[in-house]
Amino acid sequence: MFIVPQYIPIMAKITRKPAPRKAAVPKKKARAAVAKPKAPAKTSLKAAKPWTPAEVREVFSRFRKANPEPKGELEHVNPFTLLVAVVLSAQATDAGVNKATRALFEVADTPQKMLDLGEERLREYIKTIGLYRTKARNVIALSAKLLSEFGGEVPRTRAGIESLPGAGRKTANVVLNMAFGEHTMAVDTHVFRVGNRTALAPGKTPLEVELGLEKVIPDEFMLHAHHWLILHGRYTCLARKPRCEVCLINDLCRWPEKTV
């Protein structure tokens, strides 16, 4: 008769023990840990002090003094070969494209000669370039379209160039600038980085950066502006390790992480 009373308090103790364990989960601490990291520094460029017209003019005056006649690094002999080279350069280096096109342009430097060469033989010339099969198809197709719709000539309008297979806005801007002397701003990965990093023309897309640069750069510099920015991004304002110590504009640059 006395066995039951002995087990009642024991059972009560057993049922109480799990309760503190459940309450001990540090939910609030976990939330606090998530909230600790600071917001990305990307927003700082948007908040950076805007460049004054005098500062922008100073930047491009320095670029011009250091390199009065900058040249694009894609080798070509006429507007058609320039167009082809730019189409081939997508997701590839200029050096890699030049290595392939030197021999190609010796045998096919017009739309008709490119069609005569044919897609299969064209692939053999450019097989060292990334996505060469798709690019070969586009080059043959754009050559055919140039002959059928543009009299075998590269059109001198952005809309006309963008209508060609494999050619987009950047391609059109490069061709219009380099072949026809138009004041266009071609935004590649280097120009996009420089525009954002320096806060000269911050933007989330290449088009935003392009329009921002066109807005702030004086017209007298626009013919060569995209070359100066490309070369600056390619050889000085590098993606992983910018060479701030030799940068021509390090005293004006708004990048909060510059090393000088």
UniProtKB/TrEMBL annotation:
PROSITE patterns according to UniProt: ENDONUCLEASE_III_1 (PS00764)
EC number(s) from the headed UniProt entry: 4.2.99.18
InterPro entries per the UniProt record, alphabetical: DNA_glycosylase, Endonuclease3_FeS-loop_motif, Endouclease-III_FeS-bd_BS, HhH-GPD_domain, HhH_base_excis_C, Nth
Keyword Translocase: no
Cofactor stoichiometry and binding remark: Binds 1 [4Fe-4S] cluster.
Membrane-crossing residue ranges in chain numbering: none
Necessary cofactors: [4Fe-4S] cluster
Broad enzyme group: lyase
Residues annotated as binding [4Fe-4S] cluster: 237, 244, 247, 253
Top-level taxon: Bacteria
GO biological process: base-excision repair, AP site formation
Keywords: 4Fe-4S, DNA damage, DNA repair, DNA-binding, Endonuclease, Glycosidase, Hydrolase, Iron, Iron-sulfur, Lyase, Metal-binding, Nuclease
GO molecular function, one term: 4 iron, 4 sulfur cluster binding
Pfam hit, one: EndIII_4Fe-2S
Family: Belongs to the Nth/MutY family.
PANTHER family, sorted: A/G-SPECIFIC ADENINE GLYCOSYLASE/ENDONUCLEASE III (PTHR10359), ENDONUCLEASE III (PTHR10359:SF18)
Protein name as it appears in the record: Endonuclease III
Annotated source species: Bradyrhizobium cosmicum
